[in-house]
Amino acid sequence: MRRILHIDMDAFFAAVEEKRRPELEGMPVVIGGSGDPTKRGVVSTASYAARKFGIHSAMPLRTAYKLCPHAVFLPVDYEEYSRVSREIKDILREFTVVMEDVGIDEAFLDISELAMSSEDVAAAIKKRIKEATGLTCSIGIAPNKLLAKIGSDLQKPEGLTIITERNIKDRIWPLPVRKLWGVGPKTEANLKGMGIGTIGQLAATAKELLIEHFGESYGKYLHDASQGIDDSSLVTHWEPKSSSRETTFEADVADWQVLARTLVALLRETVHDIRERGYLARTVTVKVRFRDFRTYTRAKTLPEATGSEETLRKAAFECLGRIRQNDRVRLIGVRLSGLEKKKDDS
Ligand code: TTP
Ligand code: MG
pLDDT class for 26, splitting at 50, 70, 90? Predict the structure, then answer.
């Protein structure tokens, strides 16, 4: 039986701000945009004190201001949150190198091989993070990623939820379908139309019916997920043979030319880097993060490994072209992987 742990920091951006300005602790704090609630922009996150007023992520800042005019509004300081995030990930890696980094404030760990009990691992992680950063987190532990992620969200903040196969029925089935990974507002609405609101109701629906409505693979996914089945392994990203560069823009970028030029420059650096180390690359991955933190990656694998900047650039542009640019861009990055040692004659 696997033991997968999911950790998610509590009110992350707001908690980091409260840590460096202790006078804010316990006050309604809203992080978003330039920090000016009279200007356009959306809420990145709100402290738990601010959530009591109905403020939540992705809400327009102006709406948040109407709900709670006396809240403290602060701009997003992504550099600082990234720094704290790295510190946290380093702590997690002390527990196991089998870590999947899924976002700025969350990660999966495979703790199957650790000698400690699940409760002890969770307590030790919480203690280390608290000591090092002053921040709190919530943890879910389960036989797979799907259930661990649901678990970390069940008792926020400072939660610990351990889910076993035996308590799927009482812990998971009463929850709304939205809690399942990969179920967004569209699927939620479709399911609602079929009279399905909870995960339990989904579990009681015939697999064939789900496949009929949602197609072979997604239908099967929904069926398995509702039963708490998930065999996916952790994507550890631990690939020594890869080279990547990314840039966070000073100001979010709308101009495609700027993105393209930045991508070319980043690619050039990675190509130099692999060439210097004597490698050719087969796969190019482009990452784009929009100002609302939606992050997309697209990859292209070439028929054979190459060191040609031009070939790799074409592949990178193809990837960029597959990401629909419908908002300003905060960050762009590129990675070369599938590296092969360059032979003397190539
Ligand atoms: P979350 O983990 O979703 O939220 P949170 O950590 O603020 O609160 P919770 O205690 O419920 O986990 O997201 C992590 C950070 O990502 C969050 O602090 C800010 C950022 N973020 C956005 O910028 N926009 C968004 O829409 C969301 C959901 C998060
Ligand atoms: Mg969080």
Answer: very high
Whether pTM > 0.70 for this model: the answer is yes
Q: Is 26 exposed, middle or buried (0-12, 13-18, 19+ CB in 10 A)?
A: exposed
Question: Which residues have a catalytic role annotated?
Answer: 106
Give dist(CA 290, CA 103) in Å, integer.
14
Q: Which CATH class is domain 242-341?
A: alpha beta
Q: Is 283 in the pocket of ligand 1 (CB under 6 A)?
A: no
Q: Is domain 168-226 annotated with CATH 1.10.150.20?
A: yes
Question: Does residue 58's CB lie within 6 angstroms of at least one atom of ligand 1?
Answer: yes
Does the C-beta of 12 come closer than 6 Å to ligand 1? yes
Report the CATH architecture of 13-78: 3-Layer(aba) Sandwich (3.40)
- The pLDDT assigned to 345 comes to 52
All structural domains of the chain with their residue ranges: 4-10+79-167, 13-78, 168-226, 242-341
- Which residues are found with C-beta within 5 Å of the ion, ligand 2? 8-9, 12, 105
Ligand 1 atom nearest the C-alpha of 106 is 2
Q: Position 271: which residue type? A: V
Whether 340 and 303 have beta carbons less than 8 Å apart is answered as no
How far, in Å, from the CA of 9 to the mean position of ligand 1? Answer: 9
Kindly report the number of other CB atoms within 10 A of residue 319's CB atom.
21
CATH 3.40.50.300 corresponds to the domain 4-10+79-167: no
Residue 9 CB–ligand 1 contact under 6 Å:
yes
* Nearest alpha-carbon partner for 150 in 127, 125, 183, 117: 183
Confidence of residue 277 (pLDDT cuts 50, 70, 90): confident
For 78, half-sphere exposure in the C-beta direction (CA atoms, 13 angstrom radius) is 19
Ligand 1 pocket check: which of 44, 47, 89 to mutate, most ligand atoms within 8 Å of Cβ?
Answer: 44
- Domains 4-10+79-167 and 168-226 alike in fold: no
**Which ligand 1 atom is nearest residue 9's CA?**
6
Evaluate if residue 346 carries a pLDDT over 50. Answer: no
Ligand 1 atom closest to residue 157's alpha carbon, by position in its atom list: 10
